[in-house]
Amino acid sequence: MANTKTVSKTFLTLLRVSRMLWVRVALMACLAVVASITAMLLDDFIPDLLRQRFTPDAVMPILTILASGMLAVSTFSLNVMVTAHNAAAAQATPRAHRILLADTTTQSVLATFIGAFVYALSSIILFKAQLHAPGASVTVLVFTVVVVVLVIVAMLRWIGHLSDLGSMDNTLRATEAEARKSLDLARRTPALRANPLTDETVIPQEAIAIPAPRSGYLQFIDLRRMSTALKDIDARVYIHTPPGRFVLEGCAVGYASGLGDKDLSEITKCLTIGENRTFEQDATYGLLVLSEIASHALSPGINDPGTAIEVIARQERLLWSWATTRPLDADPLFPRIFVPDTDPADLIEGAFASTARDGADLIEVAARLRSALQSLADGPDAGLAAAARDMIDRAQAYADKALPLESEKTKLQTGAAVGGVSP
Questions:
Q1: Where are the domains of the chain?
Q2: Are 271 and 261 in contact (CB under 8 A)?
Q3: pLDDT tens profile 15-37
Q4: From residue 124, how far is each of 64, 137, 144, 217, 248 by CA, in Å?
């Protein structure tokens, strides 16, 4: 999906479903049915020589080995995945577990293993029930060879993937990648290609509240469907709640003017509210997850300032990319809808607030944080630069209270190099 495009709620639902493991397993399992149907269609075209050479007795042992072998491999792989994800959640943050669950490599490999088992088992049942055509063993053998090739490729991918699965580096890379996608979308499509809702936006007095259909986090706003629901040319929608905010059922997430009760009901259907925050339209969530990893690393039980410094570097890289990316120069695609644009102060707050507090007593962390914030303060985006300067002052105040030595406080204030880190 290109960052300058908008997606519908239906497409989002299909995308989320496609990331579920059972969907890919079901597609692999359908091979058995496809093989049976193909065998019936091609039965008249299969030469007698192949029928005599590849009988069901020749194919059944292969299917039996594939079924038993894939059952063991699938069980082992699932145990490895669960263990790795639990380890990542323990050493990083529980939010990282949901990110790793969306790993396409792991899903594809496990789907191949489990799907191959289901395919082999289904084929065996069809053979035993004598539901295959007379020459089906030839066609089934061809499909079985394809499945075996897929299994071999999946095993090679799995071997290379296991060396990094659940490691801190893998967790940080996956989290940064998700954060980059949502930040890039927010930067290139200001206000999600609607009109920005600012303090100067005048909401009509006759506007009625748009109630949240349920309690939870606002995950997604289907602007395209919402725009279609605005049948009256004078109708306007003002969504003052940004994606990622927690809302309560019945409370107003925005206001609408020029709409009837039926149209208002259609507007509420455009709001996706769930139990957890997601990355689709929430630009600050990825930075917050990275910040949680840094805070967890700085806890007394972990005491790993190196990971916190690595997180600061990744956040600095993400925010610098956001500041230097040019927004889409085009008229709003949904001019009758008003949505809050991404606030640079929220980005800085989500990225560095907890690290400034929890790492204030470690001079190497405080120095690296100041260096990152100073770079962003000198950057091209005025709003982000102002927020970074405010965070520098807050981080300095934390450090002045937490650092044990006056010499360290002085070095931090003057910007002197500390432990190989140049503020």
A1: 17-166, 287-330+342-414
A2: no
A3: 777 777 777 777 777 776 777 77
A4: 8, 11, 12, 47, 52
